[in-house]
Design a protein that fits this description.
Helix 3 (31-54) packs antiparallel against helix 10 (286-316), helix 4 (73-85) runs parallel beside helix 10 (286-316) and helix 5 crosses helix 9. The protein has 430 residues and is of the alpha/beta class. 40% of the residues lie in helices and 13% in strands. The longest helix is centred in the C-terminal third of the chain and has 31 residues, at 286-316.
Length: 430
């Protein structure tokens, strides 16, 4: 940063000179990576623009509709934009989908039937999806997949964090209906699954069993590459609008995109058989959902750069980080192994203090629904729970890893790194 900017941060925002020096030094090391990310961002920005133009978007698509939402042209156009961008036959993009877990659960329960078998190819899924499947106590007896006679297997990743294709193929049975890949790390110490790995996995599955449905949890992964999972073999994928594709503007919602026959099944699970996707009010969100999706490639670019900077800064401080700064990335999450509950809390306090909203609040661990451990969460966002905005969180369990993500601009994500580093230094944890 310039001397003028550093002086402002010191004089007006209380940042220590040694913290700024450490962050500037780390930033200089990763400039080559930033240039690569800018190329990906440019490709995706034009890809999204092309979809808007092909779908003939006009201001009439931003109008309010009421009641059942029959024949809402804005909603239909929004879903066409998603399908066109993600190269799918159809998409369901709805305000009624409350978060990413809901989108994924809808996709699973909409497609799978009693007697079917689901195989998770990337190890145990994210905590809240465990409840939806029924492999954690919080989901048992509450309508999970297992409650309805759907069986579950999981194949752990290889030590290098890649898919164990041999074990996956050996696990297939005549009952296997779905192979499920979680792209992002979740609360796991591993790299996100790359698009090239997803492509290789699904290609082989289709060669062996064309009838198997290949599904991807795409949360945190949109616009990290020039292709999405549905462009490399995924039959269906799902995600949240208050993560990457909402661009920080969508107030709520989620999406499912893929084959039309599968999306029709998911729509009937969201509403009712016989109604499907024909109903569903957008509550005046169509404009912000479209505008957020349009600017999402640029927003995601800033968040990814912030994650890389975070990794470099804390690696320079002697901490283990994942992924490493020069690793190829497939989500916006940076895991930092701080080694203690105190370290997690200090890091989170720093990120919270960097927020534009609720910067005066001190985050404390709490029993968050769907998790077996207390979770610390720093998130001072314009949209509550928005993971594309600056946040840091993690369950308080060994080895005490906190997960940093988001930032509507790179500069804000960088400031989150600055404040986290300063908070840990002030707490004498570095």
């Amino acid at each position: 940063m310039s001397q003028k900017t550093n002086a402002f941060l010191q004089e007006h925002m209380g940042i220590r000179p040694d913290v700024l020096e450490a962050v500037d030094a780390a930033e200089a090391k990763v400039q080559e990576r930033f240039a690569e990310l800018d190329d990906i961002m440019a490709f995706n920005q034009y890809k999204v623009l092309d979809a808007f133009q092909k779908c003939g978007i006009s201001d009439m698509h931003f109008n309010w509709y009421t009641g059942y939402g029959y024949d809402d042209p804005g909603r239909e156009a929004l879903e066409k934009i998603y399908a066109t961008t993600f190269r799918t036959e159809a998409a369901l993009v709805r305000t009624q989908i409350v978060n990413g877990t809901h989108a994924l659960s809808l996709a699973l329960s909409g497609v799978l039937r009693p007697g079917d078998e689901m195989i998770a190819a990337t190890g145990k899924p994210y905590d809240t999806i465990q409840s939806a499947i029924g492999i954690s106590e919080s989901g048992k007896g509450k309508g999970s997949l297992i409650d309805f006679g759907i069986t579950y297997k999981q194949i752990d990743l290889l030590p290098d964090g890649t898919i164990n294709q041999e074990a996956l193929e050996a696990a297939l049975t005549p009952k296997t209906r779905m192979v499920y890949v979680q792209r992002a790390t979740g609360y796991a110490w591993r790299k996100a699954i790359l698009i090239s790995e997803i492509e290789a996995c699904f290609k082989r599955i289709k060669e062996l069993r064309p009838d198997i449905i290949c599904m991807t949890d795409n949360c945190y992964g949109e616009f990290l590459d020039t292709k999405e999972p549905t462009e490399v073999g995924a039959d269906i994928m799902a995600g949240s609008l208050i993560k990457n594709p909402g661009g920080g503007l969508a107030l709520s919602g989620g999406y499912v995109a893929g084959r039309k026959d599968l999306i029709d099944l998911v729509a009937c699970r969201l509403t009712s058989p016989g109604i499907g996707g024909e109903c569903g009010l957008t509550f005046g969100q169509t404009r912000t959902m479209m505008q957020g999706f349009f600017q999402a490639p640029k927003v995601v670019n800033g968040a990814v750069k912030g994650a890389i900077l975070c990794g470099q800064v804390f690696q320079d401080q002697g901490m283990a980080v994942s992924p490493l700064p020069f690793d190829q990335r497939s989500d916006i999450i940076e895991a930092v192994q701080v080694g203690s509950p105190e370290g997690m809390c200090a890091f989170a306090e720093g990120v919270q203090a960097a927020a534009p909203v609720d910067s005066h609040v001190t985050p404390v661990p709490w029993a968050m629904p769907g998790y077996d451990d207390d979770v610390i969460m720093a998130a001072g966002a314009f949209i509550q729970g928005s993971s594309i905005e600056l946040s840091a969180d993690g369950p308080l369990r060994e080895p005490y890893t906190i997960y940093f993500q988001g930032g509507l601009t790179y500069e804000h994500s960088k400031f989150g790194v600055i404040k986290a580093l300063q908070a840990m230094k002030q707490a004498h944890l570095l």
